[in-house]
Amino acid sequence: MQQAEMTQRENWRSRFGFIMAAAGSAIGLGNIWRFPYLTGEHGGSAFIIIYLLCIVFVGLGIMIGEFAVGRKTSLAAVGAYKTQNRSWTFAGALGVLSGFFIMGFYPVVGGWSLAYMVKSITGLLTVPEAIGDFFGAFVSAPVEPLFWMILYLAINVLIVAKGVAEGIEAAGKVLMPTLFLLLIFIIFRSVSLPGAGSGLSFLFMPDWSKVSGNTLLAALGQAFFSLSLGMGCMITYGSYLSKKENIPQNALTVVTMDTLAALMAAVAIFPALFAFGMEPAQGPGLVFVVVPTIFAQMGALGPLFSVIFFAALTVAALTSSLSLLEVVVAYLIDERKMERKKATYIASTVMAIMCILSSLSMGTLAGVKLFGVGFFDFFDILTDKIFLAIGGMLLAIFVGWFMKKEDLKNELTNDGTISFGLFELWYNLIKYVIPLAIFVVAFMGIAAIEQTSLMLFGIFIILALMVFSKKL
Ligand code: PHE
């Protein structure tokens, strides 16, 4: 018997608390850092349109599914699958592994954000033309980014080891709305710059010639990454959800907020980028170069706005990485019977080592390749382009084919007390359309991508998990 089954599961204190936690997990570096640079690399609006289709037809359905599985079983990812069907343990294990690997690069970027918060007032903005070079030099340095990464990770550890998130919740309640306000502010600055128009047409006039199988997979992977799906995070959050809550409605709210944040970030960045004559496909440095440049041109108040922006970005990142670390820690506590503090320290130590490798792969270790890519890309591509998409597909198959339709209907309508008019549509989506769509996109993506050996390695890991996870 699982311990959690015997004791009454703790619930979120309020609906607002749940929405904030789930949206806090969803909204993070994925929206503000990753979405804009992927949009830049994949040619702009065509990518955005495909991304939005992935959100509406795949992401929303999966989020409803994850919440339903979590609340029905009252267990986190591994336990939720395992209690329903033992041979599905591997799908939960894959989720834990995904969380673990994402934490192999996420804190590196969290560290950059933390550093930029401080650097905003120590000279980053003084020479606007040098901001791009500054970023390149900073991330490729051997020691300094490691310091910030460790600091960022340490904040995560402090919070998760305590098992309470009150401080971060309080900070989040102020800083998340601040982030939205600042984005609105930057949007106004950005679109009013001379030459901003070409940025807007880049965002709103699709150029379909850039779309390939790789674009589709990038958009799908980003949808999962940004919504924190395909790795059991939302299963875990759903397990704390009160039986009275309306799951489809909550899922819709979270998805809408997340998408809004991503689109706002893009509209904030691209007009300014084109106005400054910068390169849209510049990759991971995008937000760290364009936003400071905007602030640098604002005179005396620039540094202040910049500090607030990166503080808000750091907190947004924290509320996401906390949920990632928690997925791993919860697994060690629930299934390995480890004590919380010990679990947190062990997990984060291994994560720190992966992060050191990822950070160094931007400079010192640039020559070291794993399956053709550096460490940072290794953890990133493996999770975002393989594990999350496959994890989402497995969840859809599990819900559609291994759970009873009756049970799902009861879960989603709170035993018939509320209505979910689109139940049949959702059910058919998750049973047939979503698994097939993910399969096709993953297949096309794998065929189109350069890192074939990495893809095969990812699939090998999943197969290995299927074989060995019976012991988990
Ligand atoms: N959704 C988070 C972001 O956009 C990242 C994340 C992925 C968090 C998966 C939890 C699980 O930054």
Number of strands: 0
**Given the helix and strand composition, which structural class is it?**
mainly alpha
CATH architecture: Orthogonal Bundle
**DSSP strand (E) fraction?**
under 5%
Provide the gyration radius in Å.
Answer: 21 Å
User: What's the structural domain tally?
Assistant: 1
Question: Which CATH class is shown?
Answer: Mainly Alpha
Mean residue pLDDT: 91
Residue stretches low in confidence (pLDDT < 50, at least 5 long) are: 1-7
Q: Strand count, sense and closure of the main sheet? A: none
Number of helices: 21
Bound molecules: phenylalanine
Helix content: over 70%
What is the ordering of alpha helices and beta strands? HHHHHHHHHHHHHHHHHHHHH
Shape: globular
- The termini sit apart by 15 Å
CATH topology: Hydantoin permease
Structural features, described:
With 472 residues, this protein is an all-alpha fold. The protein has a single domain, classed as Hydantoin permease. It has helices at 3-6, 15-26, 29-41, 45-73, 77-84, 89-102, 106-119, 131-140, 144-162, 166-191, 197-204, 213-226, 233-239, 247-275, 286-296, 302-336, 340-360, 375-402, 405-412, 423-448, 452-468. Helix 2 crosses helix 16 (302-336), helix 12 (213-226) crosses helix 20 (423-448) and helix 15 (286-296) runs antiparallel to helix 16. The radius of gyration is 21 Å and the shape is globular. Residues 1-7 have low confidence and may be disordered.
